[in-house]
TrEMBL record:
Family, similarity comment: In the C-terminal section; belongs to the class-I pyridoxal-phosphate-dependent aminotransferase family. Belongs to the class-I pyridoxal-phosphate-dependent aminotransferase family.
CDD domains: AAT_like (cd00609), WHTH_GntR (cd07377)
Entries under InterPro entries matching the protein: Aminotransferase_I/II_large (IPR004839), HTH_trans_reg/aminotransferase (IPR051446), PyrdxlP-dep_Trfase (IPR015424), PyrdxlP-dep_Trfase_major (IPR015421), PyrdxlP-dep_Trfase_small (IPR015422), Tscrpt_reg_HTH_GntR (IPR000524), WH-like_DNA-bd_sf (IPR036388), WH_DNA-bd_sf (IPR036390)
Gene3D superfamilies documented for this protein: Aspartate Aminotransferase, domain 1, Type I PLP-dependent aspartate aminotransferase-like (Major domain), Winged helix-like DNA-binding domain superfamily/Winged helix DNA-binding domain
Cofactor(s) listed: pyridoxal 5'-phosphate
Keywords: Aminotransferase, DNA-binding, Pyridoxal phosphate, Transcription, Transcription regulation, Transferase
Name the record gives this protein: DNA-binding HTH domain-and aminotransferase domain-containing transcriptional regulator
HTH gntR-type domain: residues covered: 11-79
Quaternary structure note: Homodimer.
Stored PROSITE patterns: HTH_GNTR
Amino acid sequence: MHVPLDHHSRTPVYLQIKQAVLEAIREGRLAPGARLPATREWARQLGVNRSTVAMAYDELLADGVVESFVGRGTFVARQKLAEVARLDERAARRTPARKMVWEGMFSERAQSPVVESLLDLYQVSTLRDVISFSGSFPDAASFPTREFRNSLHFAERTLGDEIYRYGPVAGYERLREYLAQRMRESGSEVTAENIIVTSGSQQALDLIARALISPGDTVAIENPTYPGAMTAFALAGARLLPIPVDEDGLCVDVLENVLKVQRPKLVYVVPSFQNPTGACLSWERRRRLLALAREHNLPIVEDDYGSHLRFDGDALPHLKALDDTEHVIYVSNFSKSLLPGLRIGWCAAARPVIARLTAFKQNNDITTSPLLQAALWDFCRRKRYEAHLEKIRPIYRARRDLMLRRLAEDFPAETVWTQPAGGLFLWVTLPPSLDATELLYQVRQQGVVFSRGRLFYSDNPKRNTLRLSYGHVTLEQIERGMRVIGTTAKAMLGRATGRTAERFHSHTVPLV
């Protein structure tokens, strides 16, 4: 059965397959009782993943259009065909209803450039059936699903109805105690009262922005930096003050000069394996940044998504561990290193800060899932988290090393890139004549995507930069995908291109 697939369509491939089956049934090309191709066979014929075909079949099963029998296969249902035909007739007779016109209905914040950039970034990062170096997802093949499922069962068996009620807004007490103990082992002087559990670190940033930022306030922020942070502060009404980043992280000397003439409300920094560059804030700069915070009474928001993903060299202390004056608001999560679907993060700060964040969280989502918090606590107390980290570090190191080799062998000679000692990202700067947007358009036609660097800048974006993530791609995908990007970049070099890249569309998923 031939199915013309459009990989550039807004409609996901699995829904295109579903629609093709429905049309074949309606037109009589698939009769009642007809057997559909096996998922593996059809996936090979269509050139898609087997899971894509399986999702289409699941949709058809849910609608009652097909029936599935173990050991026999999937067949067109007999009893639903008349109903499908009636629905078609009814739809043909129905006068189209006038749809809501949403143009002009969105708030100024929802139409702001930072929101548009964020949508652009995550539309590309969630494209299916491609080799994706976009997104910041951990390796799905290494998810400790069986072990975490055991902890879920333990939580259900031993904690009973408690985990199905609303829990404390600040978080499950045993998990907060574990997080505090873990931070104390790293040198931070915190207790459970200094911690609030959040629905991912993004919620923590949103709560911090609400609690500390008034419209018109200035936030000093790395440039380039994590787009989710830019959005959180900008939507709170802040003016973003870009501070450059080099191989040693945030340029603290530039910040020091800025502080002589401006008074930002806070500074946001990712000191370990910075997103997107992978840079680490040096020991000396960490000390200087804290000294500036004390001198200017400047809060520091430390976003630590992955200091525990270090492959090379000695670990550097968290800013929070060096902070004895409570200037640092520490944010972290389990999404990049464990299971992104948990959506559990936390924030450690002075008690007055935690009190305000708790009040805003109460109004935001009341509480993060007590069941998942309890299961995570059990998972961690059994040392399964440490075991998982030991397992994934060499996996990520091997992927980073292969990506670095491919950069050296496949990319134009003038290309430069970072060499992070850990984390999930590489930052690549192409020769000045190349445009990463045009490169993305070209390699997308060959089944490869990456994140354009311009989406990570709050000011003066560099059009010849890109971020490559190695967390969720296999070694084979790195070999093939990097060769495609490098070969295409070489072909583009020195060739004038007037093409304007098209926008990329896909389903939008929650920010990660």
